[in-house]
Structure formats: structure tokens, C-alpha cells
Amino acid sequence: MKEELFEGFFSGGAEFWIGKVVDIESQRSTAQGFSWGWRYKVRIFGTYSNSDNIEDKDCHTAMVMLGVTDGSGGAGRTRAVRITQHDIVFGLFMAPDQNFPVIMGVLGRTKKTRNFGGKFGVLTGFTKNLIRGLTENQESNECDSVNIPKVTQNSKKGDGVGREVNQGQLEQMGESTTESNVNTRREPEGSTQFDTEGLDQNEINQAVAEEKDFISAQGGDYSNSNVINETENNDENALEIF
Q1: Which domain holds residue 86?
Q2: 150 contacts 133 by C-beta, under 8 angstroms
Q3: pLDDT digits (tens, 9 = 90+) for 84-117
Q4: N or C, which end of the chain has less CB nearby within 10 Å?
């Protein structure tokens, strides 16, 4: 019997394609995470046309090939994919008969990108959840500089308008409502900085000795050390903190 060999991918040659990511409303389930991996609906040039009757939701679903600096997710190493609706993407088919499309890259938009209409027209990438920010309508990624973020006319940032001071709460804490002081906030009653639960006195004494040795080695004065003063206090009512 003739031995059958596994030919692997692309045995008949790789088939590349270029397509447009369809409107986000036509792929809400995958866009909102109700799927696996990073996948987008793509209207592929040549496979689809302006005159066909195929809806966006029925176009190919393509998986994104991540770059080596993006991480696979192993060891918690991840980086989000930044593809949005109406982006022009480039990829290939991993299986025969135009199956298993994979997105390998995205063609950057420029300031001269225009919408020529039809099913392949390039519209805005902004959505109701991905809204305009401080760079406003910028939708290009090229060697030219990005727009300079600016304060919008209706913004309250930088005009001296802020939140009122909660004077009642400050007075309850014993703080002044008219003077600005540094390090005046007192620790709440019963608070601890160090937890000695589960430590016996010998372990606490050893920790204090190590603290003294460390401060002495640095040429410091440990008489003001909270660690030493509080743990060496033999008062039964003193807080045991370390």
C-alpha cells in the first residue's frame, strides 16, 4: 500500500486576499466577546461584489494572526487587537476552497482616505462604544504627526471649576477646612501598620533585632523607628504591630 504523506497547509500554494471589515452591528456577537479568539467579519474583494445579495453578517469570519510582540496569552502576556469596522485588511486562506481565512495585517488609513460608496466603501471606524476622544476626528495612521489633544469648549478641566470641599467630613476628622497642612491626617483609632498575628515574642524580638542591625549599618538612629518603639512597648494595652 502506498504510504500517504501529510502535505500540510498550502500544498497547492497559498491564496492571499484583501478585504474590508464589515459594520460592527453585523458582528456584535464576536465583537462583544461571545466567541473565541480575535475574529472579524470580512467582505473579501473578488469573493464578494457590490452587486451581490450577500449581507454583511454572512461574510467570511476571519481569525487574526497575532504578532510576536502581542503575546499568545500564555503566562498572561496579551495585547489587544486594534482592528475596527471598515478597516482594509490583508490575509490568506489556511484551508482549500477559501476556508479558514486569517488576517495577517491591516492597511493603515491616511488623511487622503476617501469613501467611494458601495459595499466596499471605507466609512468611519468610530462606533457607539468606540467614541471620539481628545484627538477628535483623527482616523489615520501614517508617518505624519497625530493631532494635538486639546481641551474642548464644554470641558470643565483647566477652567478653575472643581468639586466642593466636604467641610463637614473634614471637621469630623479633626482637619482644618481653611488651612492647608502636610501630614496632619491622623491614623484611625485601633489601626495597625504591621500584623503580628501568629508570631510569638521570640520571633518579634528577632525582627526588632534585625531592624536595629539594619539601621545601625546605615549609620542611622533607630530611636524614632515605629517598628522598634511599638513592638518593644511592654504595655499590655499597647498595639502589637510590626
Answers
A1: 15-107
A2: no
A3: 889 999 999 998 889 999 999 999 888 887 777 7
A4: N
